[in-house]
């Protein structure tokens, strides 16, 4: 692939897709580690006067809409830089981009199987085939989830699972078609790039073919999972066998080129350091510069229970808030930052709405990945609960669909809903 080749791309999330817009292809450098850690050391030995001066430089950049550098990002992770200052700066960007609104949706999760060929060290969800915990859902069980979702007014089903070595590609595709045929209104946000990579391996077809075939079956968009940490120093320790950084980014690029919107994530709070996190954000930012297809970034805090890393402590609320804030500051070209309440816990998710986040995910049902890893958050929130916790945090709750359009519901029957205008039309966008 060369920089001079061109692709069709998406407009930034929430904007109409430009027809025939061409942009340079992603340079190969984005897929490879290109940074080594010395600046971390350089920054942490600063005295207070130098630190204050350095922070003022960053504040000036943010206030005047300039892009932050890798060194800026690493500096902001220095625990000596007051969290409140970082949060205040992130809040400035958050309000510039998304006003006082905080988004949520009404959604459910479906994990059709937990049997997985991979053994990622951070994962408590996966199972071996013969383990009593292992399962694969029947068509009837899947249809029952669709009926329950409709009954509860869900607009979205978030579908991810294990890579089951006895299930052919068609099983994964047909379950998407089964749901779409029976529940056509529900948006299917399905399969991480890791699964798409597995389907390429199963079918011996290209990622474009797989994505197109899945879209024909009913896939609406892709979630952001499987990104973990891109830097090979960390990725090789966590999940050396599954889709690598290059493949993850290429699959999202291919999805964007096909007009499929996707989300992006970062799993933090395990063996990585600040420069790995900033390297990760920079790679996402570079791809987003070219395709504009990421809708929202979700920082995911590591939960250690029942994983091969259960000797680690889960990240503190302070680290969670700092990561939300730094993500907001670094990812100047991603419209939304999500504070996933399941993973953060409700009080931290509420606070995150003042530290850069403008989205809190959904009401959620049947979440397994975090609950298997020790999350103590409830399994599900009611619409009143989620609206209440947003209001309590001083923000205005707005229901969105998966691709960030406003949702309108009938006053007499909340299960009767339709999508309206893109949400970003309503607020100032920088
Ligand atoms: O890819 C797995 C992470 C991801 C653990 O796109 C863990 O809207 C912490 O991607 N501790 C799946 N994290 C979840 C995900 C997601 C969640 C919410 C919204 C969206 C979206 C995407 O969870 C995995 C992995 O990075 N994960 N195990 C664990 N023990």
TrEMBL record:
Residues holding [4Fe-4S] cluster: 116, 120, 123
Enzymatic class: transferase
Cofactor(s) essential for the protein: [4Fe-4S] cluster
Protein's GO biological process: menaquinone biosynthetic process
Listed pathway(s): Quinol/quinone metabolism; menaquinone biosynthesis
Known catalytic reactions: 3-[(1-carboxyvinyl)-oxy]benzoate + S-adenosyl-L-methionine + H2O = 6-amino-6-deoxyfutalosine + hydrogencarbonate + L-methionine + H(+)
Descriptive protein name: Aminodeoxyfutalosine synthase
Cofactor binding summary note: Binds 1 [4Fe-4S] cluster. The cluster is coordinated with 3 cysteines and an exchangeable S-adenosyl-L-methionine.
One Gene Ontology MF term: 7,8-didemethyl-8-hydroxy-5-deazariboflavin synthase activity
HAMAP family for the chain: MqnE
Residues noted as binding S-adenosyl-L-methionine in the record, renumbered to the chain: 122, 228
PROSITE patterns (UniProt xref): RADICAL_SAM (PS51918)
Family stated for the protein in its record: Belongs to the radical SAM superfamily. MqnE family.
Enzyme Commission number: 2.5.1.120
Domain Radical SAM core residue range list: 102-333
SUPFAM superfamilies membership: Radical SAM enzymes
Function, in words: Radical SAM enzyme that catalyzes the addition of the adenosyl radical to the double bond of 3-[(1-carboxyvinyl)oxy]benzoate, leading to aminodeoxyfutalosine (AFL), a key intermediate in the formation of menaquinone (MK, vitamin K2) from chorismate.
Gene this chain is encoded by: mqnE_2
Species whose genome carries this gene: Crateriforma conspicua
